[in-house]
Design a protein that fits this description.
Helix 1 (10-19) runs parallel beside helix 10 and helix 7 runs antiparallel to helix 8 (159-171). The strands form six sheets. This protein has a five-stranded parallel sheet, sandwiched between helices. It is built from 14 helices and 22 strands. With 422 residues, the protein is an alpha+beta fold. The structure holds adenosine monophosphate. Adenosine monophosphate (AMP) is lined by residues 118, 141, 153, 155, 185-188, 192, 214, 271, 282-283.
Length: 422
């Protein structure tokens, strides 16, 4: 069969790398893709928000299954538009994608169905939000309702920071209409974990837990990023905790969405915090986490194509998933200056040497081809991912590969997965 992956980042590289290994696949296409993806798929220069272009591509290439990577086209209704034309799609509808597209919607679903989450209040008027902060004090968390490229959550240590955050979101409108509503939320403390599940809206197949590293610097210091590295499995998530997450978060959420006429088909991501009072949902995402996808897809032994197709057809109950018992660690290499301003176009050296290491895959995120060389083309540039007998071995192998790769200004954290070793 012919499969189209929509997107062009590290997550989509991992998806294309895994899908291309399937015996069921004749050809993999990716729109728009990147130079790393081009090794496993034919990349076609159509942007993810060009729904008409993607539909035409599906017709021209006789696509049997579309896997949509990023949240923006899902929230815009790409899955609905493709399904309306009879295509099979792995990815939720626009109505189901509201779980990420509107944090207010997600909080209301959780509140209504007693899914554990931080206490919160929603404001349409910044003035009321300011008054609320005056009464509650800090620490406190201020969130924009809509999609804000991962920057719409501000954890505020002081009331002054919370007032600044409310001003930026609600008055200066730095996130545009995503700031029409503001959530002010209790600040939780604890360890964060990501639990992803594949679901067809009825059957839920939880994946092994993973852990992301959001802040830019070692020791979780500095501003938040899209994610500087991830690993799986997570030793602190015991099998009892996994059962609790499934029962108290995944099952009621998928059920609530179906009851609300928003049947969820695709990948559901729960960002959780393990607090001293139990687990709490920080957010839902409606797609694979990036970089969690990279270690998770390296650890999945099964062919993913029957799983994705079963989701698209509503037949996931017939499927099973097999895991590589080894651990995987992904270290993100980023441009100097990221998550602030950074330069593009730096020539990347050492990719071939790193790729020669066994059990290592260098996933491309922000790269481009220029004059026969691979150059940087984004904030997060590469996701260097390795398997190992345990987390320590996977970590050592990933950093061995990172040490072979260079460009001027490149930065990475040196402590990805170290938390799991303590
Ligand atoms: P979110 O996009 O909602 O996951 O938020 C991004 C990051 O902000 C999370 O990964 C947490 O580190 C932090 N965060 C979000 N909500 C809270 C909260 N209620 N308490 C403490 N930290 C939070």
């Amino acid at each position: 069969m012919n499969i189209l992956v929509v997107g062009g980042g590290g997550r989509e590289h991992a998806l294309c790398w895994k899908i291309a290994q399937s015996d069921l696949v004749k050809k993999v296409y990716c729109a728009p893709g990147n130079p790393g993806i081009a090794r496993h798929a034919e990349c076609i220069g159509i942007e993810v928000m060009d729904g008409a272009g993607i539909l035409q591509l599906c017709r021209d290439k006789k696509i049997d299954l579309v896997v949509i990577g990023p949240e923006d086209p899902l929230c815009a209704g790409l899955a609905d538009d493709l399904r309306a034309q009879g295509l099979r799609v792995f990815g939720p509808s626009k109505a189901a994608a509201e779980l990420e597209g509107s944090k207010v919607f997600a909080k209301e679903i959780m509140h209504k169905h007693a899914i554990p989450t931080a206490s919160f209040k929603v404001f349409e008027d910044a003035h009321d939000a300011h008054e609320y902060v005056d009464n509650t004090g800090a620490p406190i968390v201020v969130k924009a309702d809509g999609l804000a490229k991962g920057k719409g959550v501000i954890v505020c240590a002081t009331a002054g920071e919370a007032h600044d955050a409310i001003r930026q979101i609600g008055e200066e409108r730095v996130f545009g209409r995503a700031g029409d509503r503001i959530i002010v939320e209790e600040c939780l403390k604890g360890e964060e974990v990501s639990v992803l599940a594949i679901t067809d809206g009825r059957t839920i197949m939880p994946l092994e837990p993973a852990q992301d590293h959001k802040p830019i610097f070692d020791g979780d210091k500095g501003p938040n990023t899209g994610g500087m590295g991830a690993y799986s499995p997570v030793p602190s998530v015991t099998s009892a905790l996994r059962a609790e997450i499934e029962a108290s978060v995944l099952v009621p959420t998928v059920h609530a969405m179906r009851m609300d006429g928003r049947k969820y088909q695709g990948l559901l991501y729960a960002g959780l915090m393990l607090t001293s009072n139990g687990l709490s949902v920080l957010e839902f995402n409606i797609r694979w986490g990036d970089p969690e996808a990279q270690p998770l897809l390296m650890r999945i032994k099964s062919d993913v194509v029957p799983l994705f197709m079963a989701v698209a057809q509503g037949k996931l109950g017939d499927q099973t998933i097999e895991w590589d018992q080894r651990a995987a660690v992904c270290v993100v290499m980023a441009s100097g200056g990221y998550p602030g301003a950074y330069e593009k176009g730096k020539v990347i050296e050492g990719l071939d040497a790193a790729a020669k290491l066994s059990d290592v895959v260098v996933f491309h995120a922000g790269t481009a081809r220029s004059g026969g060389k691979i150059v940087t083309n984004g904030g997060r540039v590469l996701g260097v991912t390795a398997l190992g007998a345990d987390i320590a071995a996977a970590q050592a192998r990933a950093y061995q590969a990172v040490d072979l790769i260079h460009w001027p200004g490149a930065q990475h954290r040196t402590d990805i997965a170290s938390k799991a070793l303590r």
